[in-house]
Design brief:
By secondary structure, the chain is of the alpha+beta class. The protein folds into 3 domains: 189 residues, no CATH class; 90 residues, no CATH class; 138 residues, Alpha-Beta Plaits (2-Layer Sandwich), CATH 3.30.70. 45% of the residues lie in helices and 16% in strands. It has a 5-stranded antiparallel beta sheet, with no helix packed on it. A hairpin with an 8-residue loop joins strand 17 and strand 18. Helix 2 runs antiparallel to helix 7 and helix 12 crosses helix 13.
């Protein structure tokens, strides 16, 4: 008996339900992948386009600051709220940061040098000629440091700066202590360590500890000073400027006036100080002059980009919703693939994967909601030169660029209010409403497929507690049960046929013996 062939033939029929389970599971996995692809596209449009690109105020800013006069002293950037008032800007004092600066620890001292090596330079010691006791003393040396009441110590109150700490590590350690509110930098050319307060103005601080030990670290960078414990310090000061004759005091060099952001770069007066007036006798002043004009170029590019991205998304949604579904093309089994060419497998699988999201309720709702939002604002959009195509184009947008440019020039604020929302109700703009609609769709997809609504990554993992995740768990359980059943059935068949074969062999043997006894063999 050919037992293997007989068992294989019988098991083929029994494996049909298992093949169907695996095919259904594969379809579900493919559908989940399709949802993840749509999640990625929706997330990208909402987060990277509507919110981060088109929704920011600068994207629709049509105000441009035109400067003349002392253009190197002040930088002017008009915001969307610039009110068009001409301004003359004079600067009598720049805001500065509080500072501690050492005299220097030697020329061309690399940041890789350790504190022990710096100490040896101060002591005039040759590392190659040190005694064992001296080597140990340098190795055991530590350096204290505190600024603005913050000490640089570990949890055991031991200083972080030891003999083998490099200059680069010193700088990094100081900068890592956010509560010290300072930043440090090191100049290899001069050997200077410079520590500035993070903020500027008269209230900024870079105060060293009162105990001499609190500045042991800095003394290594102060070799050029007669007294190694005395450092160059400076308090921060406020900025003083005059705009159209009105005195302005700020603790920073960047501030806004009349919707224009001013960045003070240098003083414009021949005499500098907080009490200096540009009109004082003997004071020479070279001010900056600012006018604002409307330039819709940036806004036009923003709107064109939005329309292009919007059209691309609704086209993708429409294609997925209307994609053909080939019900006769089920996922291939391993046995079927073994009998096919790679090109045939690829063509078959492409049809099997087609239409997985055909007429999908989430995608249809998303597309419908997006088109509804456009329709609600179509009157205002049309006045700007933005219209929709035919019904068959599923709401595709078109732009009349000449009409758009004229509309933006005539009423720039109206366009901003329509697309980004007015300042009093910023979330009522078209961009925000579209983003909100897509956020709801992302949540629906996440609930169903287990996708990550906060990420557009195509490699992000699925959440097993989603609807489809639970369905896949059930498939795996049923497949496991079916495999156990088939394994038991196959074993039973083999046992039965083996027993049958043994019995037949025994019967044949008995028959042969009987015939032999009658002399018939």
């Amino acid at each position: 008996m050919d037992i293997d062939s007989m068992v294989k033939s019988m098991m083929t029929a029994k494996r049909v339900p298992l093949d169907k389970l695996n095919q259904d599971k594969q379809l579900l996995e493919w559908k989940r992948e399709s949802y993840r692809e749509m999640n990625s596209k929706l997330y990208d449009f909402r987060t990277n386009k509507l919110t981060s690109k088109y929704g920011v105020s600068s994207a629709m800013n049509m105000q441009t600051a035109v400067t003349s006069g002392n253009t190197t002293a002040v930088q002017a950037d008009a915001s969307a709220t610039a009110n068009g008032i001409d301004m003359a800007v004079s600067v009598t004092q720049l805001a500065t940061k509080a500072k501690v600066e050492t005299a220097g620890g030697g020329k061309m001292v690399p940041a890789s040098r350790t504190l022990a090596e710096m100490q040896m330079i101060i002591d005039g010691k040759d590392p190659s000629k040190l005694t064992e006791d001296e080597k140990k003393a340098y190795a055991d040396k530590t350096y204290n440091f505190s600024i603005n009441g913050v000490s640089f110590t570990d949890s055991n109150k031991k200083t972080l700066f030891t003999s083998d700490t490099s200059i680069a590590t010193v700088v990094a350690t100081i900068n890592s202590k956010t509560d010290a509110k300072v930043t440090a930098k090191y100049d290899e050319l001069t050997g200077k360590l410079i520590i500035n307060s993070k903020s500027s103005g008269k209230n900024s601080e870079a105060k060293l500890g009162e105990d001499a030990k609190d500045s042991e670290l800095l003394s290594l960078f102060n070799q050029k000073a007669a007294d190694k414990s005395v450092f160059n310090t400076a308090d921060g000061v406020n900025a003083f400027a005059y705009v159209n004759g009105v005195k302005i005091e700020k603790d920073t060099n960047t501030f806004s006036v009349n919707g224009v952001t001013l960045t003070l770069l240098k003083e414009t007066t021949s005499t500098v100080g907080e009490n200096v007036k540009p009109t004082d006798s003997g004071v020479l002043d070279n001010p900056l002059f600012i006018t604002t004009t409307t330039d819709p170029t940036k806004a036009i590019e923003t709107i064109k980009g939005f329309v292009e991205d919007y059209n691309a998304l609704i086209l993708t949604l429409s294609k997925r919703i209307g994609e053909a579904k080939y019900r006769d093309f089920a996922p291939l089994t391993d046995e079927q693939k073994a009998e096919m060419k790679d090109s045939d497998i690829e063509a078959w699988t492409e049809k099997a994967m087609s239409g997985l999201l055909k007429n999908d309720d989430i995608l249809k709702s998303t597309l419908s909601s997006m088109r509804t939002l456009i329709t609600e604002k179509l009157g205002s959009l049309s006045a700007m030169g933005i219209t929709t195509g035919s019904y068959s184009e599923n709401g595709k947008l078109y732009i009349d660029e000449a009409k758009l440019k004229q509309a933006l020039t005539d009423n720039p604020q109206g366009a901003i209010d329509l697309l980004q929302g007015p300042q009093s109700a910023a979330t009522t703009g078209l961009f925000d409403k579209l983003a909100d609609t897509i956020s709801k769709s992302l949540s629906s997809i996440a609930d169903r497929a287990g996708t990550n609504r906060f990420s557009g990554e195509l490699t992000s993992s699925f959440k097993e507690e989603s609807v489809m995740g639970k369905q896949l768990k059930e498939y795996n359980k049923r497949i496991s049960t079916m495999l156990d059943y088939l394994e038991n059935a196959e074993t039973r068949y083999y046992n039965q046929f083996s027993a049958m074969e043994t019995a037949m062999n025994k019967l044949n043997s008995q028959s042969a013996n009987l015939l032999s006894s009658f002399g018939m063999s």
